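#struct-help
A.M.: can someone run this one for me? Single chain, 276 residues.
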Amino acid sequence: LKLVEFCLRTTHLPPPPILLSLQSATSLKLRTRRPKTKRHDPQQIPPKPVHPKMPVELSVDAFNVACTKADGRDKIARFFQYAFRAFIGYSSMHHPKNGTRLHTYETMARTAMTNLGSARRCNRWCKEFPVIQNLPKSLAIKDPIDRFIDVVQKVSLATFMITDHVGHLRQWKILDGGKRSGAGTIQLALKFFCLSNSMGLIAQLKKYFQLRKSTEDKSADKYKCLETAFKHMLIILQTAHLSLLYPTHDIPVGIAGMISSLMDLKAQWPQKAVKA
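D.P.: on it. Structure tokens below:
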């Protein structure tokens, strides 16, 4: 084609129609030709991180499995204990008179809340032993800040449990209350529990900000840190109110106790097996 064009230019003759049609066809073909794309090797494409999802199994069998565990029964009882506390807070806002239906329900809720608390206190005996046994591991932590936070958290948690036992025995009139009654001793124990959860909150937030600096994908670990930190915040609200360290109101405290109880119950609840 180029040779024919050169001949026509040198002879100064008009190009024939067939040559014009060939030129238009070749130029159209060049314009419509798609650019070549490089094929990516599937081995070079990094796979997206997949976080395993473990859905909770909602069935009577799952409820029975949770009830076979001591911690499962404790969290279920704790949920209803704080539900009754929230109802008591709601009832106190209306100032029910004696003999009214609301006053009767408030009395029943208060009785159930007190008995559930006493029953849960019975199941708390000897739980301080594993905490005390783990203290050497806390003292072996290299980072001085992490070591201080972990030691204070565990020592205050063990102190809470031991002081709670003393208050329980004083409620039963087995030990002499002295200047501090059984209820006052339990309030003192809850102050130590509030301190323990405060240290746990600081530890989780510190771990979260350290994970944010990592270049790897740590979204699952960061979510777990925030979830645990949120639970510590709820327990701090509860213990600050119950220990009279910072009284608020029974309604938010009851709701916070119900939420934290469900979060703890989730760990005891069986989960569905994910099919591959």
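A.M.: thanks! The chain has a mean pLDDT of 84.
D.P.: also worth noting: The CA atoms of residues 138 and 151 lie 6 Å apart.
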